[in-house]
Amino acid sequence: MVELTAGMIEKYLKEAFGTETSLVDYGDIGSLDKQGMKKFGYGKPLLVRFKVKGKIQETVISVMKGDNYGHQFYWDRAAVLMFQYETSGKLKRHVKPMGLGYVDKSGKMIPLQEPEEFFILNKKLEGYDYFQDLDRIRKGGFLDADNDRAGELADWLADIHSLKKDDSHLYTRRVRDLIGSSECIMGLVDEAYSHPCEYFSRDRFINLEKRLIDWRWKLSHYTHRLCAVHGDFHPWNVLVGGPDGFSVLDRSRGEWGEAAGDLCCMASNYILFGLYEGNLFSEKFRKMYMTYFERYLERTGDMEILEVIAPFFVFRGLVIASPVWYPDHPETVRSSLLRFIENVLEEEVFDYAGFERYMR
Question: What range(s) does the Aminoglycoside phosphotransferase domain occupy (predicted)?
């Protein structure tokens, strides 16, 4: 947790309240050993006394500390503090916020003045979305380079996944988020499907969620697998055709996670596009899928990934089968994807080479 000094505080006060502001005094207010039976807290507040144009004022500055309750990263903690700043003053009898800010890399406290929305600037890259290649292949334009590309994508994943991290709490958080987050499985069940759903009954959703609880406890034995991940590795987040080969966009859901999440994300899309050929799965997309999977397993030697990948396929399957995200799927495509996410949970080890049988 960042330690605030007198110099840092005074510079911030002058920037936030004007140049005629001066720091009078500051010190701890409360501590974890003064909370009675409550022995755990999220931060250590400072009482700050300062003067603005000769008038004494007091404020309490709080900095959250990292913990294993969804606050491991500074962006987690920023979300909590932004929520408090935006909403606390609207609640009767609640303490009123006086300011919001952040500490930069140089140790300077920077005030945020009445934030409304945040934005990010990214470098402009050359190329086009990879899904356009998959559309071309679906329509019959398959090239040898397309199969080579699938191998290149697998190589890239193998490379980034080689960076490991020892943090069992963080791995458990990622599994918990996979199942319970509003962005992931339960959020998709609630928001990406109508209820009642004409092609996936309430009982099927209930059984799916119950089965996922078994998988959550299974994955608790795989915390050693935590590694660097992209988090949203699908054809709409990959640019191809640029001078440096392919590039990736929109890293999501954290820096660390389970490699299976990345691996199945692109694989699910190969399956999706392959289903559009008709009654038989596309041989072109099967070839790309197999190249992608086998190259990854060859490069990493990670056969264990097949023991943990099933619930990640459920997440990605719910996305690509959703009528909200993909309203134009033929009924046969959507039904095949939904059968896949049910059946894939029923085996302890994913049969990547025989994946078609999960859709029967």
Answer: 146-267
Return the DSSP state at 34.
Answer: G
- The amino acid at residue 329 is H
The DSSP secondary structure of 252-287, one letter per residue, reads: -S-SEE-HHHHHHHHHHHHHHHHHTT-SSPPHHHHH
Q: What is the dihedral of CA 301, 316, 185, 338, to 10 degrees?
A: -120
Strand ranges (E), the chain:
21-28, 46-52, 55-61, 100-103, 109-112, 128-129, 227-228, 238-242, 245-248, 256-257
Token readout for 46 is 């400072």
DSSP string covering 317-351, please?
HHHHH-TTT-TT--HHHHHHHHHHHHHGGGSSS--
Whether residue 26 contacts residue 58, with contact meaning beta carbons closer than 8 Å, is answered with no
DSSP structural state of residue 236: G
pLDDT category of residue 35 using cuts at 50, 70 and 90 = very low
Dmax over CA atoms of the chain, in Å, equals 81
Contact by Cβ (8 Å): 262, 199: no
How far, in Å, CA of 355 to CA of 360, rounded? Answer: 10
3 state DSSP class of 49: strand
* Number of alpha helices (DSSP H) and beta strands (DSSP E) in the chain: 11, 10
Q: Above 90 in pLDDT, residue 314?
A: yes
The number of residues in the chain equals: 360
Min mean pLDDT across 70-74, 210-214, 276-280, 344-348 is at 276-280
In the block, tokens 């996305």 appear at: 319
Residue type, 44: K
**Residues 272, 260: contact at Cβ < 8 Å?**
no
Q: Report d(CA 208, CA 211) in Å as an integer.
A: 5
The C-alpha angle 205, 236, 156, rounded to 5 degrees, equals 100
CA gap 292, 299 in Å, rounded? 11
The structure tokens listed for 281 are: 């799965």
Tell me, rounded to whole angstroms, the distance of Cα 154 from its chain centroid.
20
d(CA 303, CA 349): 10
